[in-house]
Amino acid sequence: MSLTNVMSGWRTPALSSWPARWMAMPGSFKVGSIILAAHVLFALIGVFWTPYGFAQMGTGIPLSGMSWLHPMGVDQIGRDVLSRFMYGAHIVLLLALAGTTLGMVAGTVLGLVSGYLGGLFDEIVQRLVEAMISIPFLALALVTIIAAGPALAGEPALIVLVVGLVYTPRIARIARAAAMEIATREYVAVAELRGESTWSIVRREILPNTANVLLVEFSLRISYAPILIGALGFLGFGIRPPTPEWGLMISENRGLLIASPVTVFGPGLGFASLVVGLNLFTDGLSRMLGQRSVVGA
Amino acid sequence: MNNNKGVATMTQLIEIRNLGIAYGGQTGWTDVVEGVCLEIAPGEAFGLVGESGCGKSTVAYRLLGYGAANSRVQTGQVLFEGTDLLQLDARSLADLRGNRIALVPQNPTTALSPGMRVGQQIREMILTHRALPAGVSMGQRITELFALVGLPDVSRRYPHELSGGQQQRVTIAMAVSCNPALLVLDEPTTGLDVTTQRQIIRLLSDLRSRIGMAMLYVTHDLALLAQIADRIGVMYAGQLVEVAPCAQLLAHPAHPYSRGLIASIPSVLQGHARGSGLRGMLRRDQMAEGCKFEPRCDFATATCRSTPQVLVPVADGQAVACMRWSELADTQHSTAAASTALRPERQSTPLLSVDNLSLSYAQSGWFTEWLGKRTVPIARDIDLELGAGEIVALVGESGSGKSTIARAISGRLAPMSGTISVDGHRLEPTLAGRSVQQLREIQYIFQNPDASLNPRRSVRAILERPLQHFAIESTPATLETALESVGLHAGYLNRFPEQLSGGERQRVAIARALLVNPKLLICDEILSALDVSVQTKIVELLLALKEQHAVAMLFISHDLAVVRQLADRVAVLYRGELMQMVDTDALFNSPLHPYTEMLLLAAPGLRKDDYVPKPPAMPDAPSVAGNGCPLAGRCPRQVGSLCAERRPAPQMTQSGFIRCHIPLAELAHHSDVAVSARHVQVSGPASPLLSYRSITP
């Protein structure tokens, strides 16, 4: 849709001018996107090829540390940590993306409609949103997972749902603020005078004009998502073992921190670089779109 | 300054020599001001006029040593009392600014600090420059300054407690607080009402004669300059194209651009004669290497395109940058045919009828009733009728409730009481209750075309959406014809609003409204955001559309001159009440309401007319809220306590009604005197344009 027009700065892309345009981009955006590209590449390789199977036991002697066969060591039951690390890369990426997208869609719809309509609907939605934001996100996530019951626990869909649930009210607030500003513009009044439906006005008039804000919000949220997913995995509420989710790997191997520290370094570094990369990317993106990045929960 | 050369320059207060300024952008440096030379003598008022984007403000701000962050002075000097301002460092500039050269900004609302009392803001200025005259205390000086600009002592007030006109007076008081030698005024009256505008102009000429400072007055409004300036410089595309004494310029403009600019100004006296404006618009991407005005000039020849033009003196004090000026002086300006607008026969059943409409923004609920508060209406007892194909203008100062009435008719504000009917069918008060058909019949065009077009949609999407929504069948050619009917072409379909100029955007907005074949078009101040030459074009367009489409218009405006060109009937609104309803043609020969008269006389013509508003007859008898005539206390002809206490009943006239306590016969006599006095000032013929033609040899 009109999201193509969001990048109004670089409309009509000519192939020859790409290098020049790349050079003109903010440094943080360049570094961020290189880190992200590396992550995606690494995750892709991990899906199709790993030195050993990610759940294959007895590939080496436990606690043997670094070696040419096992650059990241071997865990307690003899699984190759590098293989697990590689295979786990795409899980974090996909879960973060799906969870944030879910929260984004729900939060945007709720926020835009609430900001545009105002009145009683807005009041109700905003009180609910405030109630949800007042609960710490980890507590909310844990309660949701426990409430879902053992049958669903460990399913990727549940993690996606939890991330979405945590993010929806936070994104709704930002979307509402943006929509309230746009709702006073005269082109919205023109559409009202035509007798357009609320949904049509939100979709055609308000959404395209809040896209900048929402795009920055999306990248900001997605940079926090790996932390949330990792924390859930670490606490044992994440993906069901033996699927090698990074948070779970840190949790499994934290007993080896002294005996064979290299087994924890991989997932830790993976998280750190992913979050740093996403943050740099967001920072650069918001600077290019002329938005201030909002730091906060 | 002892040598001869120094003395020579000292006869001029400020001298700009060959000034060239460029703005940096993505594509490199663009010259916005080129080779501007002008000088202002001490005590002289110099007017700088031109369309928006011609570089006049850029030049003015350079006189204060100020330029936008991305601007660069390429060439030239700005000599103020012999020193080059462009060479000064920040500290010496700061000593000059406010002290020797002061600025009156365009928008006083944003120029005054909202969190500081206005007295404190003036005090700051005087303290900074240590400009307190000996033997006077600060308090006295500030009171004195307020008295100078005709204000009571308002030093304890905050800016939001003052009206727009009062705020502008405060900024003027602040500007003259250090007795500057030069006052730079950047469109100081653009945002103000006609009557307030005239008060400010009077104040400024008064101040000039008392303090003896020079003024640089930057504006796009030539009629206003005629009232105050000694000499006028006309700028086009960053160059001065003509410099001449005020009267000389207005009577014998030598440059084709000055001619066009003067011709495009509507006048309250001009009647339905269409202003013969300038064609095209200022486009910096289409500049010829020779004369910059060549693409729009009616007299251009092939040599004009290649020969750069420089200012050459042609008469006493007059200089023009056109090599064909002497030939032009002989040719008569192509006379705009005074087209008598088609007046539809008044039909028995009106298209739109508004009865007894009262409006208020406050929601009256049980809570406010319980508190015993009565909601004060913004508009009350409005009766209005519009025939099919008729243009009715709604005129009044800002805050008189014009737009509020339009909101109610369009359905965005539910009225407190009263009914609105179209074609005899009563309309529901809110949008939700109206049928799709009824919504289609009334189309609304907003004041600001920047905000009424969605910036993220192409012109095609903007135009297509109403067609889809009202399920109107369309062929690919429909949009193109719609664009052509408003003077654009199919090439605009794929552009986005940000790629269009203000005038083009307003045309797109008009095309969007017309596409769905409305019966009534509500035009809410649609010209006020546009340049004079563009305004003329849009007025022509609206008149043509009225004939083609037979669409009725409710035209909201504060500008009587435009209304005079366009409207069939005029409704004058003051503080939410209709004061008078009159045929446009009858504005000059039928009895006038005192308020209508005030508005008419205040509108500046192209002659210096030394207009002095008549003082209110009984300034101490303001209207009793909700009961009296709203004009009481301000009316120059108030008859007594009756005005303040009782609401006048409408008196029927030939073409409408007047709401006034003074009997019609007396009103008629009075307005004859007032208007004929005005006719004498413009020397015989009704049109100042005609009069200048008759003088031209």
Would you summarize the structure shown here?
By secondary structure, chain A is mainly alpha-helical.
List the helices and strands and how they pair.
The complex is a heterodimer of chains A (297) and B (697).
Chain A: H1 18-24, H2 27-48, H3 81-117, H4 119-133, H5 137-148, H6 156-183, H7 186-193, H8 198-234, H9 246-253, H10 262-288
Helix pairs in contact in A: 2-3, 2-10, 3-4, 3-6, 3-8, 3-10, 4-6, 5-6, 6-8, 8-9, 8-10, 9-10
Chain B: H1 4-10, E1 14-25, E2 28-40, E3 45-49, H2 56-62, E4 71-80, E5 83-84, H3 90-96, E6 101-104, H4 108-111, H5 118-128, H6 138-148, H7 164-176, E7 182-186, H8 194-211, E8 214-219, H9 222-228, E9 231-236, E10 239-245, H10 246-251, H11 256-263, H12 302-306, E11 312-315, E12 318-320, H13 325-330, E13 352-359, H14 366-370, E14 379-386, E15 391-395, H15 402-410, E16 417-422, E17 425-426, H16 436-441, E18 442-445, H17 449-452, H18 459-469, H19 476-485, H20 502-514, E19 520-524, H21 532-549, E20 552-557, H22 560-566, E21 569-574, E22 577-583, H23 594-602, H24 641-645, E23 650-653, E24 656-659, H25 664-681, H26 688-695
Parallel strand pairs in B: 3-8, 3-9, 6-7, 7-8, 15-20, 15-21, 18-19, 19-20
Antiparallel strand pairs in B: 1-2, 1-4, 4-5, 9-10, 10-12, 11-12, 13-14, 13-16, 16-17, 21-22, 22-24, 23-24
Strand fraction band of chain A? under 5%
Strand fraction band of chain B? 15-25%
At CATH level 3, the topology of chain A is MetI-like fold
The interface involving the most residues is between: A-B, 20 and 26 residues
Distance between the termini of chain A: 30 Å
Strand order of the largest sheet of chain B: 6-7-8-3-9-10-12-11
Compute the average pLDDT of chain B. 79
How many β-strand stretches of chain A? 0
Return the domain count of chain B: 4
